[in-house]
Amino acid sequence: MQAQLIALDWGTTSLRAYLLGPAGQVLKMRSLACGIMQLPNTPRLIADHWCADGFELAFDEACADWLQDNPGIAVIACGMVGSAQGWHEAAYRETPASLGALSTALQTVRSVRGVEVHIVPGVIQHSTLPNVMRGEETQVLGVLQTHPHLNDCLIGLPGSHSKWVQVQDGCLVHFDTFMTGELYAAVCEHTILGRTQQQAEQFDAAAFDRGVQVALSPDGERGPLSTLFSARTLSLTGQLSPVQQPDYVSGLLIGHELVALGNVLRRRRGGQPLPAIILIGNSQLCERYRRALGACGFADVSLAEQATEQGLWHLAQAAGLLQHTHLEA
Amino acid sequence: MQAQLIALDWGTTSLRAYLLGPAGQVLKMRSLACGIMQLPNTPRLIADHWCADGFELAFDEACADWLQDNPGIAVIACGMVGSAQGWHEAAYRETPASLGALSTALQTVRSVRGVEVHIVPGVIQHSTLPNVMRGEETQVLGVLQTHPHLNDCLIGLPGSHSKWVQVQDGCLVHFDTFMTGELYAAVCEHTILGRTQQQAEQFDAAAFDRGVQVALSPDGERGPLSTLFSARTLSLTGQLSPVQQPDYVSGLLIGHELVALGNVLRRRRGGQPLPAIILIGNSQLCERYRRALGACGFADVSLAEQATEQGLWHLAQAAGLLQHTHLEA
């Protein structure tokens, strides 16, 4: 099948490369540990140039054969690759942000092979406390394109920095960030709570649910700075075993995130019921969020797949990159 | 002046030793980096015994000359030295906890010199989520002894694990813990927020107050998991400089602690006004809390000094340790 687009999801710690065919089918996918904070650093020859640039080296490692096999193929990338620390900065675009607005704001960097890499800008929200995303905007647009009738819906992207994106009429209109994933890692690796933890072989749903219930309970009113200490005291009193502790803490933090989100949404929406939720991301993490969302009163939760590659495909199409490829093919 | 008591405040990272005279005056004080997690480990001769035990080595380093100069002097210790990882475990006593109850529950360990060290037990609260303290109970008792008419008062002990202790009729009746200090360190040292921070030469009150105000604002409703990200976005948008970030994050977290505490107290106390607050601890940290408490509606805030040594003195007195010393002197 004829390849049409190389689509890169290039974040802080990893680089995912997709080779997409007609209508955006995934022909091939590769995942490399070459995020912008851990780029390769061994210089080598690329297209007859001696090359030491980490972005060039990573790009070549991910795509050299695809580029050779598909001369003139278009390349598009989203994520931290467009940040100030990235390959080429693609300045944030403001909310409300649509497919059209972002597709006309792609920034281009020419690789040492002469291939142009089109970089998707992130999105900024100039609220009292500003908010930013890079990469998630592409995933949200992917969902909006594959579910064109979505409205009054909240798209959740759990992760190191979870995003909750309100969409309306095909636009990202508002979003909130929670540093839940990164704080979970910092708590487990760098506080006293980690000292008594033991990794379980599999997900302990009961321990996780218990953490969520604490966040929902009157004790939860004290907030995560306080309830986290219960992982220690329940352990000291023999009520929480070492292998239960990691999932209990995970449930606590995700529970606090969702309780706060629910409270904010209820206030923001007046009497309206909570919106439908679509989750995008790692399936195990989405499953945790699905459980916790149910406990927190979100009745309608579904999962979206292939959001990134679909978003990159539709952005490339809207930017006219695919037609160009087609002419050369 | 005749020394009456050696009083040890022996925590996780440090050991403070006080030589107390009549009525508990501090004759001498020493601070050693010999907490129970970083004990000395070079064996040496103590009282003709070859000794490799870290607790013995630290105790000798802190007090050998005082013990030699004051034969038969009583020794009392509080803090993590009485934990399961300490020198000798002094099991938790339950709330409500009074001077009388704790003074009859001292545990004794005999050192290689033949000196008995009396260890103060910690306190446990068997609430739905249990709560524990070790060392703070002694400080609270110190304040209660030196301010005998205190009632309906909340004693705050800011630190790695801040404690808020409700006292009534000379007893510790209820307490809450917030891991604010330890989480602040984990956030600054082990998350993306630390990467753009720069240590200021002095406390930036405006940045700190701004963080407190965010916690108090409608944005604060999302909780610290979310508002913390504003340290990054305000930085990205040029609204918060690298040197302002540490104190902004400090204000945010302390603000969230106190907003939650205020909400819980208002609910617990019905229509009654917020209680008077007495702070115990490091003076710079107490000053941060005093500022933030004022902003959060706590109108009556004062500071207590020498709480630990006063608490140890009164516990030793109640346990009859001082009379014993006196007879031998």
TrEMBL record, chains A, B:
<dbReference type="InterPro" id="IPR007729">
    <property type="entry name" value="DGOK"/>
</dbReference>
<keyword id="KW-0418">Kinase</keyword>
<keyword id="KW-0808">Transferase</keyword>
<dbReference type="Pfam" id="PF05035">
    <property type="entry name" value="DGOK"/>
</dbReference>
<protein>
    <submittedName>
        <fullName>2-keto-3-deoxygalactonate kinase</fullName>
    </submittedName>
</protein>
<dbReference type="InterPro" id="IPR042258">
    <property type="entry name" value="DGOK_N"/>
</dbReference>
<dbReference type="GO" id="GO:0016301">
    <property type="term" value="F:kinase activity"/>
</dbReference>
<dbReference type="InterPro" id="IPR042257">
    <property type="entry name" value="DGOK_C"/>
</dbReference>
